[in-house]
Design a protein that fits this description.
Pfam families: HGLS. The chain is 46% helix and 16% strand. By secondary structure, the chain is α+β, with helices and mostly antiparallel strands. The strands form 5 sheets. It has a 5-stranded mixed β-sheet with strand order 3-4-5-2-8. Strands 7-10-11 form a 3-stranded mixed β-sheet.
């Protein structure tokens, strides 16, 4: 049997190879990320505090877009075969001023051991065809009929996925077939695009056109992890790669890295075939795929996340009042003044998640340990290790999308939007959408319970 985690690792590696052959600038991105990571490893003794170099080098997240609840459910089945489950609910419709009519979740491992083996994630977006701000009744009807006629995932692929999930892996020959079919399902199609239909959807939203204007899905971007995203940004620009304007997420500052920072090179014009109204096939280009890169920090608790959101809002307000000051500089000054500047404060103020381990005690030490966690840490009985943030930020994701759009699209602000939430998505795909805060808290609590038990203390 090829176990689940090996299937996942092979899937991530083969997708990366395929995407690199389709988007050569992605290979450049991998090369630069590798250079930066090894430089940081040489110069910073704490570089592996949030993950070893083997994990960071192999780490990827992908992104795909689907059009219907059925397609979302089928994608969930395929990812479950790789040990990847829906975590988090992201509503990108109001996260940016551009028209991005999608809701999303991220399929990823949820067990700490599985994350350490291979933390592959796929950020998966679903088109909100029922949202009247973007699609009137006529366009919704035509769009849904178009989507209902296509087949993204073959019956054989879905059958193998069900077997792999049931048996926690597949025999070697079936595993090879499953991986081949899964990778092909996310390959950019050579089938001609209906120019008129695509253009109609593109006037509403470039994202809607990329989802509902074609007969297949594809990897929209594939994202390596880097230890110094600002240095990578500079190196990519120096190689002549056009980057988006900003690094999304928290600013670069003197304190601990938290949550997620992301940037990308701009979507490239890729040659595509088009079917014209007269039936002829011509050659043109589309800009829909880009190369994203990420730097991961410490997972924040709900209180820490609330503080982060508060600082983002404050940065927005100050940016409006100081248009000649860069957003990064404003954010940095706000963070230096208001965000805890070291891990110990994040821990003691319960703003971030940590795992715990018993510390090595001197021989013959007969002191009794204190009964509280803060005392155990202060007296050196236990050590705390930050938990890596494994998820995403809706505003950052929307910012990446927006930076690579060909236009802002249209939005009818006079009507209300359709309601979608995590419960709706859970019922739609018939799988629980996990709350990331609960996953981090469970990981922290389990480690603390084991540590206290090892010290002979009551949990």
């Amino acid at each position: 049997m090829v176990p689940t985690w090996r299937l996942r690792a092979a899937f991530a590696r083969r997708l990366s190879d395929m995407y690199g052959s389709e988007v050569p600038a992605y290979t450049t991105l991998l090369d630069v990320a590798g250079e930066v990571n090894h430089e940081v490893m040489r110069e910073n003794a704490d570089a592996e505090r949030l993950g070893g170099i083997d994990r960071i080098t192999a780490e990827r997240h992908g992104a795909i877009r689907v059009g219907t609840p059925l397609e979302m459910g089928q994608a969930a089945q395929i990812f479950a075969a790789f040990g990847m489950y829906p975590v988090g609910f992201y509503d990108l419709r109001d996260a940016t001023f551009s028209a991005v009519p999608v809701i999303s979740t991220a399929f990823r491992p949820i067990d700490a051991v599985e994350l350490a083996r291979n933390p592959f994630r796929v950020f998966t977006s679903l088109l909100t065809t029922a949202d009247r701000r973007f699609f009137d009744a006529d366009l919704q009807d035509r769009l849904e009929r178009f989507l209902s006629r296509r087949e993204l995932f073959t019956p054989e692929l879905l059958d193998l996925a069900r077997r792999a999930e049931r048996d926690a892996g597949l025999p070697h020959e079936q595993a090879e077939r499953f991986l081949a079919l899964a990778v092909v399902a996310f390959k950019l199609s050579a089938e001609p695009v209906d120019r008129t239909w695509y253009a109609e959807l593109e006037r509403v939203s470039a994202v809607a056109a990329d989802i509902g204007g074609v007969s297949s899905t594809h990897i929209n971007h594939l994202t390596p992890r880097v230890l110094d995203i600002d240095l990578l940004y500079q190196r990519m620009a120096a190689r002549g790669i056009a980057m988006i304007d900003d690094v999304q997420g928290p600013p670069r500052w003197d304190g601990p890295d938290v949550l997620l920072r992301q940037t990308s090179f701009r979507a490239l014009a890729e040659p595509r075939k088009f079917r014209e109204p007269d039936g002829s096939v011509t050659t043109g280009s589309l800009r829909v795929r880009f190369g994203e890169v990420e730097a991961r920090g410490i997972a924040l608790t709900p209180a820490g996340r609330a503080l982060y959101d508060e600082l983002v809002t404050e940065t927005d307000l100050r940016s409006a009042d100081h248009p000649h000051v860069t957003r990064q500089d404003l954010a940095r000054s706000i963070w230096q003044a208001r965000f805890p500047g070291d891990e110990r404060r994040l821990l003691t103020e319960r703003l971030a998640y940590f795992t715990y381990q018993p510390a090595t005690r001197p021989p013959g030490d007969r002191r009794q340990p204190p009964a509280d966690v803060d005392g155990l840490l202060a007296d050196g009985w236990i050590t705390a290790h930050p938990i890596v943030y494994e998820d995403f930020l809706p505003r950052s994701a929307a910012g990446i999308f927006q930076s690579n759009l060909t236009g802002e699209g249209t939005r009818n602000a006079t009507v209300g939007g359709a309601h979608y939430d995590a419960r709706w998505l859970t019922e739609t795909i018939e799988r629980p959408v996990h709350d990331p805060f609960e996953l981090y808290a469970a990981q922290q609590d389990e480690s603390l319970a084991l540590t206290l038990r090892a010290l002979g203390l009551t949990v």
